[in-house]
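Hi V.,

You were right to ask for the full record rather than a summary. Here it is.
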Amino acid sequence: MTGAYLVTGASKGIGRAIAKEIAAAGFPVIALARESIDLGVTGAELANLNSNSLTISCDLGDGADIAAAAKIIASKYSHLSGIVHNAGMIGPIEHMLEVEGADWDRSIQVNLIGVQDLTNRLSSMIGDKNHTRIVTVSSGAAKRAVPHWSAYCVAKAGLDMWTMCMAEEGESKNISAMSISPGIVDTEMQVKIRAAEKFPLVENFRSYHSTGELSAPGDVAKQFLPYCIGRLGGNGQRLDVRDL
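Predicted structure:
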């Protein structure tokens, strides 16, 4: 039995591109993101590709939003064939001894804690008789410290370990999990990085953009697709799109 695929952060960038690739491959997609005009656009595009798709507004920084979204998903679908945990935020881009505590906490909540909360609330819909593939979107920042990105680095490192734990504990429940780093992609996150004047490496990222080194979200999504739907990739793997 094939169920729906849940993609978080699906209103734009990599998330929207992955959601569209999955829907175009013939699967219903649940697109999750904060309420916005972009989410509405994504919903219309997905409906044209697969009429059983759905968009749900949800802020992964808000536990009540996560609970409400999980309830809607459970009321409309019986099984999730896959989850793509793509939602994330780069900020705060600040020295870790100067950053506001609330901003740092929100980054950890959105990038890491919300992943566990949402997945846990959907536990009755994943694995068991039918396989579920969980993919988390990783980053090079999970492997090395980037100045002024402390919250993002910590969250992404934690997300990699979360994925490994899910791979270990989910295997007996017919769940496989893996993480994929997309490389440097032309998204709104990159726009925010290039605008961060106090970021020590800002000129590096401006150069990536000006010299055309950024990947297009659609190209990255095509590489992600076979892993998201379980046709490629092993349980517990961590991959980089640039090596595929």
